[in-house]
Amino acid sequence: MCPEWTKGTCKLGKGCTFAHGEKELTAWNEHLERMEKEMKKKSEEEKKKKKEKNKDDDSAVKNKVSPPKEDERLVPTYKVEDLVSRLPGVTVTSEPRDRDVSLQVPLDSEGENRYSWSLQICYESSVTGHLQDVVLLPQYHKCYTLSSVRFNCSVKDASGMLRSVTSPDTEELPDAYHYPVKSHLRKWHGSYEVEIVVSFSTLVFGNFAQVLVLDFGKENHVAVKMSIEVGSQEFLQEFREAKTKLTLDWQLWDDGSREIVKFEPKQPSVFNNEHLIAKYKLPRSEDIVPSPLLEGSQGLSKENYKDVMHQLLFAEEFYIRQQIAR
User: Fold this and answer.
1) How far is C-alpha 19 from the geometric centre of its chain's CA atoms?
2) CB of 99 within 8 A of CB of 225?
3) Which end of the chain has fewer surrounding CB within 10 Å, N or C?
4) What is the pLDDT of residue 313?
5) Taking a C-beta distance cutoff of 8 angstroms, is the pair 184, 132 a contact?
6) If you average pLDDT over residues 295-304, what whole number do you get?
7) For the whole prediction, is pTM greater than 0.85?
8) CB of 218 within 8 A of CB of 129?
9) Hey, which residues does 115 pair with through a beta bridge?
């Protein structure tokens, strides 16, 4: 309570830091209590959030260091010479059949341009082995993705009739580039029919190529090539004309596509500026001013070295003047 207000002499009015009356004092105390409760509640919420965050971080670390599952494998890499267009016992068809497609769109098109193929792969696992990996090569455009895959395996029963032993359900693959075939799909020996859907989407014009690799665990792997040209009528026409002038091939670049040449540093010579030395040779003996002090057997001594040095300086100066006068 303000002591000056009780005397009726407080001149600060509303600017006073003490309460003017019991009612104002009660209001101030209630306000302080609310502030303390809010601060306490906020502090507890922050502690709770921090605790949850630490818990999530610990969980993420555990997940990160946990050993990979059986069917989770690294994306394999392939060499050019190991990719073949066909493999004995493996039949590949697609719908649509044409895997070299042109998509003509209006010049002012703003939406995504989409396309997809449904690939059917048929093989006898006893002949070809099991399909182990399906990979879209990273050397090519990322606008191709694996959308779904479906396995169907038929084996002969005791009566010789074929019966399906795998689930016909389709497994969706959201924007995948690698599909490692699960172990339970590789345990049967029979006739396999695999359906793989490859999707394409882009917002820009151009030519987009991709190779789908079917890895059966052999030395060679089946490479299914796909290509899409996207553009307006004028763009596609110009592109076709330019393409006829080029030699196009499907050779992939990998570690074997380069030649490594050993670097052998040049041996340093005694004179790095040989052309300058050839142009500015050492003076001939007849161009040097003879020093009579060095004639005979007198030689250089403590008594004559000053005169000899002066004579050499004169000889150098004479030679330099001759060079400048040329």
Assistant:
1) 68
2) yes
3) C
4) 84
5) no
6) 68
7) no
8) yes
9) 200
